[in-house]
């Protein structure tokens, strides 16, 4: 429990009250020794630590960025998605919090047990559908009158977004999300018992001029097998395990040695006008800025790397490396 730090004015006021008799030191001591009681609601059991909630939030921050890029490409308009909140609440409370008629997608996430729910606010869902069909992204709420074609188009759009969810969770567990159901009435969904704890990730979404929320409901039963992986210790251990082993460095070095690079030697340069270039004849001489008694520059992939001197090797034109050109911190190491 965090201790409260008093200011100097509060300390002076407390000492003054004790000196004048307005407060009794024994009463303060008895109050301090009395038991602290905290109200706990068993219907709203907190089964995830703050550390684990932060990990879930970090995963979905990445998911929101990936989803923004995906929807921007698919809908050809401005899309911004960010995590608004991550809360753990009873499943019944989540069902009561969403509209009576909305867009609900139910996914299985093998190899994890259970299913998760994506709830798309109707304003967002219809804005996506309008853009998908070539419109301006107008939002018209007619969830009760969805046609079979509209349902199919929405399902396909949301199903293709599952690759982003798989990538976002890849740092913790490899999942294979599959769209199983498309529903509009939350009362028909009974994935877990009403008092079961679920994590609700709310994504603040803007598509063109329309805005709304995307809510992701993840039951505790889904996350239970991977709860140990949602701690900071796991993330830190995972990062430390990413250090390359000596044999990996050797393999990398061996592969780099077989890579091909373009090399060229610059004999010299000169500046002439376009008119002079057009009227060049076979006997004309172009004066270069390179002195014959100074070394030439050897370029590797257009970057100067060595100073060389020209010559011959077995009747073939060749160059001999004199020294390396130092050009940065990497070269100095």
Explain what this protein looks like in three dimensions.
A 6-stranded antiparallel beta sheet has the order 1-5-6-3-2-4. The protein has a 4-stranded antiparallel beta sheet with strand order 7-8-9-10, with no helix packed on it. Helix 3 packs antiparallel against helix 7 (162-169). It has 333 residues and is of the alpha+beta class. The two termini are 50 Å apart. Strand 2 (103-110) and strand 3 (115-120) form a beta hairpin. It is built from 12 helices and 10 strands. One of its GO terms (biological process) is bacterial-type flagellum-dependent swarming motility. It is a peripheral membrane protein.
Question: By CATH's scheme, which homologous superfamily of the largest domain applies?
Answer: CheC-like
Kindly name the structural category.
Answer: alpha+beta
How many separate domains make up the residues?
2
Overall geometric form: extended
Order of helices and strands: HHHEHEEHHHEEEHHHEHEEEH
What is the terminal separation in angstroms? 50 Å
Q: What is the level-2 CATH architecture name of the largest domain?
A: 3-Layer(aba) Sandwich
| Count of helix runs | 12
Largest sheet, strands/sense/barrel: 6 strands, antiparallel
Count of β-strands: 10
Provide the residue-averaged pLDDT: 80
Low-confidence stretches: none
* Percent helix: 25-40%
The amount of beta strand, in percent, is 15-25%
The CATH topology of the largest domain corresponds to: Chemotaxis protein chec
Over the alpha carbons, how many angstroms does the gyration radius reach? 34 Å
CATH class of the largest domain: Alpha Beta
Biggest sheet: strand arrangement: 1-5-6-3-2-4
């Amino acid at each position: 429990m965090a201790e409260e730090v008093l200011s100097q004015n509060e300390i002076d006021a407390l000492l003054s009250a004790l000196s004048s008799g307005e407060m009794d030191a024994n009463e303060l001591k008895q109050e301090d020794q009395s038991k602290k009681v905290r109200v706990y609601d068993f219907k709203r059991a907190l089964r995830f630590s703050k550390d684990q909630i932060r990990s879930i939030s970090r995963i979905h921050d990445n998911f929101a960025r990936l989803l923004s890029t995906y929807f921007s490409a698919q809908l050809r308009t401005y899309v911004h998605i960010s995590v608004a909140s991550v809360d753990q609440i009873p499943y019944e409370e989540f069902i009561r919090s969403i509209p009576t008629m909305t867009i609900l997608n139910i996914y299985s996430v093998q190899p994890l047990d259970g299913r998760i729910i994506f709830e798309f606010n109707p304003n967002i869902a219809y804005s996506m559908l309008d853009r998908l069909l070539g419109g301006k992204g107008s939002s018209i709420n007619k969830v009760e009158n969805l046609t079979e074609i509209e349902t199919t188009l929405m399902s396909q759009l949301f199903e293709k977004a599952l690759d982003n969810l798989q990538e976002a969770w890849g740092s913790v567990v490899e999942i294979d999300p599959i769209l199983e159901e498309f529903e509009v009435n939350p009362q028909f969904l009974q994935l877990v018992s009403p008092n079961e704890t679920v994590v609700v990730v709310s994504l603040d979404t803007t598509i063109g001029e329309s805005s709304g929320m995307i809510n992701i409901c993840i039951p505790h039963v889904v996350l239970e097998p991977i709860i140990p992986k949602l701690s900071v210790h796991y993330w830190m251990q995972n990062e430390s395990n990413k250090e390359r082993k000596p044999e990996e460095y050797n393999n990398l070095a061996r592969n780099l040695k077989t890579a091909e690079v373009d090399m060229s030697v610059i004999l010299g340069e000169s500046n002439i006008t376009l008119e002079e270039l057009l009227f060049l004849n076979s006997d004309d001489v172009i004066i270069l800025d390179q002195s014959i008694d100074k070394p030439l520059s050897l370029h590797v992939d257009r970057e100067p790397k060595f100073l060389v001197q020209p010559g011959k090797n077995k009747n073939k034109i060749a160059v001999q490396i004199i020294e390396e050109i130092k050009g940065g911190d990497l070269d100095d190491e």
